[in-house]
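[Meeting: bench + compute handoff]

Bench side (C.D.) handed over the final construct sequence. Compute side (W.E.) agreed to return the predicted structure before the next meeting so the bench team could plan truncations. Sequence as handed over:
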Amino acid sequence: MTHAHAGSAVAEHELSITRLIDAPPAKVFRAWSEPQWLMKWWGPHGMTTPECEMQLWVGGLFRTLMRTADGTEYNNQGVFLEIVAPRRLVFTDAFRPGWVPAAKAFMTAVVTFDDEHGKTRYTARALHWNAEDCRAHEEMGFHQGWGQSLDRLVEVVTQQMPD
């Protein structure tokens, strides 16, 4: 097991994506933490996110409803574990609000927004409890899906959001 400063240790069952975004961290953080902006980019191409609820505090609800073109819906919910505006968001589906354990924990996400000369070094990490879930997430299309969401996020922060 790797021991390092909290948040910097590489998890055993981790998938991640990173990109330099031509927008300041505060703006990218807002696109992640304000539902009206998150709904514009959340999910891969061809999906919409018509619903998003956020209680932006530790233990607060984070819920999204994604819809495919054929109307299939995916309701995801969990809670925020850490919020350090505008640098870091951590959330998990392991709990529901009130620290009620979920039926099945799948992942914890650690999203960081590091300043690089006024731009944002964006990193999204998906940490899984076991190799099976990690492999399943990869086979579901983690890199493609999260990459397409990231393309959409970049478009929102560079072309749609006011400074």
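W.E. noted at the follow-up: The longest helix spans residues 142-160. C.D. will use this when planning the next construct.
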